Amino acid sequence: MSNAFRINTNIQSQQAFQNLQETNDQLSQLRQRLTTGKRINEASDDAAGFEIANKLQAKTGAQGQALRNIGDAKSALGTAEGALDSQLSILQTAKEKATQAANGSLSQDERNAIAGELNELASEVNDIQENATFNGKQLLNGGSATKDGSNARSFKFQTGTGSDDQGTGQFEVKLANSGTTELGLGGTLDLSTTEGKNQAVSVDQGDFGNSEGPGNLQDSLTASASTTAGDPEVVADLNGSDLAGDLEGGEFNISVTNDSTAGQLTFQVEKGGEVTSTQTVDVSGDDTNVTLEDDGSNTIEFDAGSAFADGDVGANETKEFSIEVTDGKLGDRLSGTSNASDARDIISDIDGAINTLTSELSDLGASQNRLSFKESNLETSRTNLNSAQSRIEDADFAQTQTQVAKLQVQQQSGTAQLAQANAAGQSVLSLLGG
After folding, report:
1. In angstroms, rounded to a whole number, what is the distance separating the alpha carbons of residues 202 and 326?
2. Residue 433 burial (CB < 10 Å; 0-12/13-18/19+)?
C-alpha cells in the first residue's frame, strides 16, 4: 500500500537519504584513490590484494637495499683492485731493476744502489697493503697468503633478499694477503747472525719511547728464535729463506697491562686489526715467553722476563709497542757481496709474485663481473615486482575519474530527490484545508 499520504514516517525521504549516503561513501573512496594514487588504501578495500601488495613492497624494498649493498661491494673490490694494480706496477719496476742487477758488467757498488731501490719498492708494496682499507676494514691484510683455508680474508656481501649464505643471500669474496712476505719477496733470513736479526726483526718501542724498556726486546726475541730447526721455539728454518712451517710473521701490535698483581704483566697480541691472544706472564718466574704466532709446531715468541724490568709498566697502566717479523727485504741478497746469480734469483721471485698478483686480479675481476650480473638481474626482478605491485594496488585514474563524474551526477540528483521527499509531507496538509 502506498505510504505517500502518511506523515509520521517518510519512507521516501529515508530511501533517498540512504541512497545519497551510499553515493557519498563511494565518492569519498574514489577521491581518496585519486589523492593517493592507490586503489587499495586499507585492507577493507581488497583484503587479498592488500596482503599480496604489501609482501611485494617488502621484497622490492629489500631488493633496493641489496642493490645499494652491491654498489658498496663493488666499491670495496675496486679499492682492492686499485691497490693490487699499484703493487703490480711496482713489481714490474722491481723486475726491471733486478734485470739490471743481473748484468755482469755492474760493480758491487752499483748493485748495492739497486738493492736499496729494491728495498724501497718492497716497502711501498707493504705500505699499499696496509693502507688498502674500506670503511676501516683492511682488504689485503689480516688473512693468509692464500685464499684457501679458514684463515683467508673473507668478505660476505648481502646481495640478495634471502637469508641463506649463498645464492639469493650472500656473496663471498676471499682476498689473499699481498705483502712481500706473502708474495715470497723476503730476503735471505738467517737469525743466527746479527745481520740476519736486523733483517728479520724490527721493534717499534711505541709508548715505551727510545730510552725505556723493553730495551733488549729485540735481542730477547731473536735469541729464542735462533734455536735449531724442529725445536718448538724455532721461528725460522735456518737453512732456508722462509719462516718455518706455516708461520706467516708480519706486524704484531702488543698491549702490556699491569693489573697490580706483583710481577705479572698481561700481553694482548693483535695482528691485522684482530686480537689473536691474551697471555698473563709472571716476568719474575721461570717461564716468561710470550707467543706471538703459533702454527702448532713452530712459534714466534719473545722472552718477556729478560725484556721487561720493574717499573717499565706502572700499576693499572697499559702501554703498547709493536714487533715486525719478516723474511727480510727484497734487495738484501744484493747487498754486501753478491753476483749476477743473486739478481737472477730475485727476478725469479718477482716473476712468482707477479703471477700471484695477476691471478688475484683475475679472480677479483671475475667476482666484480658476478656482482654486475647480480646487479642487473636484481634490477630486472625489482622492476617486474614493482609492475606486479602496481597492477594490484595502483589506481586507474581514467576509470576512477569517470566513476567520480558519474557519482557527482548521482549526488546532485540524490540531493534534489531528498529535498523533494522531505517536502512531500507538506502536500498532505492541503487535504486538511478543505
Report:
1. 9
2. exposed
The answer to whether the beta carbons of residues 429 and 423 sit under 8 Å apart is no
Q: pLDDT band for position 32 (50/70/90)?
A: confident
| Cell reading at 115 | 738493492
Contact 252, 334 (CB under 8 A): no
> Could you give the CA distance from residue 317 to residue 258 in angstroms, rounded to a whole number?
6
Grid cell at residue 271: 695482528
Tell me whether the omega of the peptide bond preceding residue 232 falls within 30 degrees of 0, making it cis: no
Residues ≥6 apart with Cβ < 8 Å to 78: 368
> What is the distance between the alpha carbons of residues 419 and 415, in angstroms, rounded to a whole number?
6
Beta pairing partners, 267: 256, 279
Q: Enter the DSSP assignment of 255.
A: E
Query: What count of Cα atoms within 13 Å lies in the side-chain half-sphere of residue 347?
Result: 13
- Residue carrying C-alpha cell 697471555: 279
3-state secondary structure 77-89: HHHHHHHHHHHHH
Q: Mind listing the pLDDT tens digit for each residue in 129-188?
A: 989 999 888 888 877 666 665 566 888 898 888 776 555 678 889 898 888 877 878 654
Listed in sequence order, the DSSP H helices in 252-324 are 304-307
Q: Are 312 and 214 in contact (CB under 8 A)?
A: yes
Q: Is 294 helix (H, G, I), strand (E, B) or coil?
A: strand
Helices (H) and strands (E) in the chain, counts: 8, 11
∠ CA 144-146-150, rounded to 5° = 60
- With contact defined as beta carbons under 8 Å apart, do 238 and 192 qualify? yes
Pairing between β-strand 170-175 and β-strand 201-204 as defined by DSSP bridges: unpaired
| Distance, CA of 360 to CA of 153 (rounded, Å) | 13
| For residue 384, pLDDT beyond 80 | yes
